[in-house]
Design goal:
By secondary structure, this protein is mainly α. It has 2 domains: 4-211, Orthogonal Bundle (Hypothetical protein af1432); 213-399, Hypothetical protein af1432 (Orthogonal Bundle). The chain has helices at residues 6-20, 27-41, 46-57, 72-77, 79-92, 103-107, 128-150, 156-166, 173-183, 186-191, 197-203, 214-230, 238-252, 257-269, 279-282, 290-308, 314-321, 343-358, 369-381, 387-399, and strands at residues 4-5, 211-212. Helix 13 packs across helix 18. 60% of the residues lie in helices and 1% in strands. The chain has 20 helices and 2 strands. The structure holds fe (ii) ion (FE2) (3 copies). One fe (ii) ion binds at residues 271, 299-300, 323-324.
């Protein structure tokens, strides 16, 4: 039975979420580390400690994709955007296992202790874990990140001053004291550096990680496919469309239910690396410069990099990350060829090309099914795609409704 570690999964997905926030590199990971230590310092029970950590990793999930045009600091300063990304996050995790039970922490992660936050909750009305995430988030973004540039890290007096401004207004005294206590340890600062944080998080209580099965992973991948699609109006149903095609194509090909589910998850997540590509490149109506094209191509690289960090889904990471590879070696980013590419890689590739062709793009209108099939046909003739698989696909598309 396939078991995946939820904390490990959220940690690697947080990389994609941070990239989506206009490159506040490691924002979620550092927030998670700080929140975890505040919770520990407060001697909360085990569940609250783990939740402070897990939920922090995805606390800004509502911002990725949909709000990728705005920068994080803009979100945090703008009242409406603050409220909006909390709410989108709350909705997007509706079906995500474990996290759905904790969605209030996402909704209220910008509430202020004095009641002047987006939803007007006050004092201890605000769930404690949400209060912790708020403080960790704010400290990461408005102290650590700013001071880091000024090279003033670890100046405890300046932290005291900074926290003094927010005491009993934004955050409770109890939380501020817990943070100050944690900050007294040198290790805390060393751990928080950009070069160490990822390794450090992998060492945080891996034995207490929560194990999830394939069905739960599928619910998470579906939520992420919606997020990925929200990134651009041209791809608003791209990943969801490909999953739908993949699931029909694989059952048509006679795969067993487990493989169908795994391939559909790969389809959901195949473009997760797109979070790393700026929206200005994704939606550029003109031809991309070679530099922009390289950035665009990096999305497939990031897809594999993100998914490969999750134990147990190495095959899914391969299928998803290889969706732009071609059998004759002309694809990207690894220039793989028929000696290593699998049938499963090709299934995702065919579904991706077909779905992309029938969608509108900034530089062209969506094609008809017939036109799209003609293009796939010519690609097989150039040796880019499997002819046998294409003929199966054509058979399926001509006899069944595969579009969403
Ligand atoms: Fe936020
Ligand atoms: Fe944040
Ligand atoms: Fe792609």
């Amino acid at each position: 039975m396939l078991k995946i570690k939820l904390g490990q999964l959220l940690n690697s997905l947080s990389f994609a979420l941070d990239a989506a926030e206009n490159r506040y590199f490691n924002h979620s990971r550092r927030t998670a580390y700080i929140a975890y230590h505040i919770a520990k310092e407060m001697e909360l029970d085990e569940i609250d400690i783990i939740d402070s950590y897990f939920i922090s990793l995805i606390h800004d999930i509502g911002m990725a994709g949909y709000l990728s045009k705005y920068s994080v600091s803009h979100i945090h300063n703008d009242f409406n955007l603050r409220k909006k990304h909390c709410h989108i996050g709350y909705e997007i995790v509706e079906k995500v296992p474990y996290i759905s039970k904790k969605k209030d922490y996402l909704l209220y992660h910008h509430e202020r202790y004095d009641g002047r936050g987006p939803y007007g909750l006050k004092g201890e009305e605000i769930p404690l874990v949400a209060q912790i995430i708020h403080l960790a988030d704010h400290f990461e973004l408005f102290y650590l990140r700013q001071e880091e540039e000024l090279n003033k890290l670890k100046d405890i007096d300046s932290v005291y001053k900074w926290i003094g401004k927010y005491r009993n207004k934004m955050f409770s005294n109890r939380l501020c004291d817990a943070l100050l206590y944690a900050l007294k340890r040198d290790k805390f600062w060393f751990d928080l550096t950009n070069s160490n944080i990822n390794t450090v998080l992998q060492l945080i209580e891996p034995e207490r990680d929560i194990l999830i099965g394939i069905e739960d992973l599928h619910k998470i991948s579906e939520a992420f496919s919606i997020l990925i699609d929200l990134k651009s109006r041209f791809t608003y149903k791209h990943s969801q469309g490909i999953s739908n095609i993949t699931s029909k194509f694989t059952s048509f090909l006679g795969y067993n239910p487990l493989m169908i589910e795994k391939l559909t998850i790969a389809a959901d997540l195949h473009d997760i690396g797109k979070f790393v590509v700026p929206i200005s490149i994704i939606e550029k109506p003109d031809k991309l410069t070679s530099e922009e094209f390289l950035t665009m191509k990096s999305h497939a690289y990031y897809t594999k990099l993100i998914l490969k960090q999750i134990d147990g889904i190495e095959d899914i990471a391969e299928w998803a990350g290889n969706h732009h590879e071609k059998l004759n070696g002309s694809g990207y980013p690894e220039k793989l060829d028929e000696s290593t590419l699998t049938k499963e890689d090709q299934i995702i590739a065919i579904a991706d090309i077909f779905q992309a062709l029938i969608e509108d793009r900034p530089y062209r209108k969506g094609m008809s099914v017939k036109e799209a099939l003609n293009i796939l046909d010519s690609m097989t003739k150039k040796g880019e795609l499997s002819r046998t698989l294409f003929l199966d696909f054509k058979h399926l598309v001509s006899h069944e409704e595969v579009l969403v």
